[in-house]
Design brief:
- By secondary structure, the chain is α/β, with parallel strands linked by helices.
- The chain has a single domain, classed as Rossmann fold (3-Layer(aba) Sandwich).
- 30% of the residues lie in helices and 29% in strands.
- The protein has 6 helices and 14 strands.
- The strands form 4 sheets. Strands 1-11-9-7-4-5-6 form a 7-stranded mixed β-sheet, with helices on both faces. The protein has a 3-stranded parallel β-sheet with strand order 8-10-12. A two-stranded antiparallel ribbon has the order 2-3.
- Helix 1 crosses helix 2.
- It catalyses: UMP + diphosphate = 5-phospho-alpha-D-ribose 1-diphosphate + uracil.
Length: 217
């Protein structure tokens, strides 16, 4: 895979495998699915945060001593690809309280599998912020490419975009990173591939439907 240095996969610890075992189980209730997904999302956001630019900042502690710490160099903005991406907003808000969230609506045709852009809304200064792009599922890569193009059209530099992703297919990952070599992607798993319906294997089903309780089975 090209540009592997820009793909950051969570360490395959037994605990992460345990979380995935809970989430991937087709019998998991919405409550179970969400509770364990949120824990993975938190790990993804922490990993993504480690890729942000920081600068040194000294602060005074309650005992009057100096702590040589750091602060974010730029503001941050989360951007959700509606609606699965919105599952990542609560943990983002916990980690970066008061930081804005933008939205992008892209829908994939169920027959052709091709994505269509419908809507986006961002803070006016998004081009000067680091952007977390929330897209849990990276299968063919078509929807994510549309979302990235939308950010680029709004003057967000490619190197300031960090995709926060739950599962990725090797094909989709390679397609996105090859097209956007300065992009960074954080994921919890690179899957084995896709089936004839463009669902990843072993997969998780439709993340948005399962997280928001509209999954039929």
């Amino acid at each position: 895979m090209s540009h592997v240095q820009n793909v950051h996969v969570l360490a395959a610890t037994p605990y992460l495998t345990y979380l995935h075992s809970k989430i991937r189980d087709k019998r998991a209730s919405q409550k179970t699915f969400n509770a364990y997904s949120d824990q993975v999302i938190r790990q993804l956001l922490v990993k993504a945060a480690e890729l942000l630019p920081f600068h040194e900042k000294a602060i005074t502690t309650p005992v009057g001593d100096t702590y040589h710490g750091c602060d974010l160099t730029t503001g941050i903005c989360g951007v959700s690809v509606i609606r699965a991406g919105e599952s990542m907003e609560p943990e983002y808000n916990n980690m970066f309280p008061g930081s804005p969230i933008g939205k992008i609506l892209i829908q994939r045709d169920k027959v052709t599998k091709l994505p269509s852009y419908f809507y986006s809304h961002f803070p006016a200064d998004i081009a000067h912020r680091s952007v977390f792009l929330f897209e849990p599922m990276l299968a063919t890569g078509g929807s994510l490419i549309k979302a990235i193009e939308t950010l680029l059209e709004n003057q967000v530099p490619e190197q300031q975009i960090i995709v926060v992703n739950f599962l990725a297919s090797p094909e989709g990952l390679d397609r996105v990173i090859t097209r956007f070599p300065n992009l960074k992607i954080v994921t919890s798993s690179i899957e084995k591939g896709m089936n004839e319906h463009a669902f990843m294997k072993p997969g998780i089903g439709d993340f948005g439907d399962r997280y928001f309780g509209t999954y039929a089975g």
